[in-house]
Amino acid sequence: MASESDQMQRDLFQQFYVRVAPLLRGYIYRVCGDQALGDDIFQESFLKFLRTVRWNAPDRQQKAFIFKIAARLIIDNIRRIRPHPLDAAARTEDPESAVVSLHEGLEPDIKSLFDALKPRDRSLLWLAYVEGYSHEEIAGMMGLNAKSIKVLLFRLRESFAASLRGKGYGLEGQS
Amino acid sequence: MKTATCSWEDRVRQALAEGGGDPALRDHTARCPVCRDVLAVSNWMLRFRDLTLDKMRVDEPLPAPGELWNLARAGRVIDPVAVKKALKPIYLFRKIAWFVSAAGSAALVLLEFEKIKSLLASLPGLNALVAMLRKGGETGAASPVQQAVVLAALGLAGILFLLLVTSIKRADAG
User: Fold this and answer.
1) Which of A48, A91, A98, B112 has a 20 to 30 A CA-CA distance from A2?
2) Are B56 and A29 inside 8 Å of each other by CB?
3) CA A102 to each of CA A84, A89, A92: distance values in angstroms, whole numbers, following the listed order
4) Per CATH, the architecture of A105-175 is what?
């Protein structure tokens, strides 16, 4: 009986991992900008998640929970975060990576703008505009109040949009 | 700075992140300047996310889920916060034990003072030392030997006190 439930939880975890792990890793890596630190935070997030997860909770809640763990771990390690671009293609000149970078277009501009932000602001932008979390959800993840998140996101959106438009990107977010 | 907000903002961001949006939402976004900005930033960020994930898929494959599952199950990675929490009662008990022993020792010394006094009196040379210190106290002029004895006694008491405080602090920090 115990092993049956264990197997069921393992299957649930595998499904969750396939859906969420790439997104979480993208978030951690872009906010940290450091691969080794990103790997540590990614692994620790899942280990913490597995210690406390309730599999009967809704999917969105579980996903928000692991993003909250990662956001808190990033805050705990904020002093270790340095601007350190993840340009593996440029560094290694790996042909496969180079194929991807040919289609990047927007990336160098948005990446330089994104990397210039503080880790907290990178985290806010990603959680709001990539993951689509509400002000209240982000407030819970970052340990701030919803009103502050609203003001911070407003300022970030204004300056981010203005900078990208200044570089010639259109209103619909297309170059 | 005045913040321009819209009550639809959260819904617009969530719908875009989930890859869609109903006609009412699209209609609103076309009319609302705040949500137009939200749409633009969301599109840029989602494109940035896609490029990031594509690049990472090529550069760094994800670890296998089974690896993390087994690691969590085996409890190979110990959470220091959980460990500290679990050991808290032990540290508290250790601290209490220190105070109880100190208080007990003091009480014992007071209760058995006469016995200790007679035991000390039976020690060879101690009577002479006590007489010497008493004499120094009465005359007010302590000899160099007396001064050395007093300093040594004070030093020893200081060391014992420091040892006691350090061990209590170590037990707390532990």
Assistant:
1) A48
2) yes
3) 21, 10, 15
4) Orthogonal Bundle (1.10)
Spell out which residues of chain A touch residue B17, defining contact as CB-CB under 8 Å: 129-132
pTM of the model: 0.65
Assess A81–B contact: CB distance below 8 Å, yes or no. no
CA distance A98 to A96: 5
Mark out chain B residues that contact chain A at CB-CB < 8 A: 1, 3-5, 10, 13-18, 36-49, 51-60, 62-63, 65-66, 68-69, 71-72, 77, 79
> Please, are residues B166 and B158 in contact by the beta-carbon 8 Å criterion?
no
User: Residues B6, A120: contact at Cβ < 8 Å?
Assistant: no
- Helical spans, DSSP H, in A33-94: 35-52, 59-76, 88-92
Tell which residue, A135, A157, A156, A154, has the closest CA to residue A146.
A135
Tell me phi and psi for residue A56, to 5 degrees: -85, 0
Instruction: Report the SS3 class of residue A56.
Output: coil
Minimal Cα–Cα distance from B26 to chain A, Å? 12
Residues 6+ apart with CB under 8 A from B125: none
The pLDDT tens digits of the residues spanning A71-130 come to 999 988 877 666 544 444 444 444 344 333 434 556 778 888 888 888 999 999 999 999
Query: What ipTM was reported for this prediction?
Result: 0.80
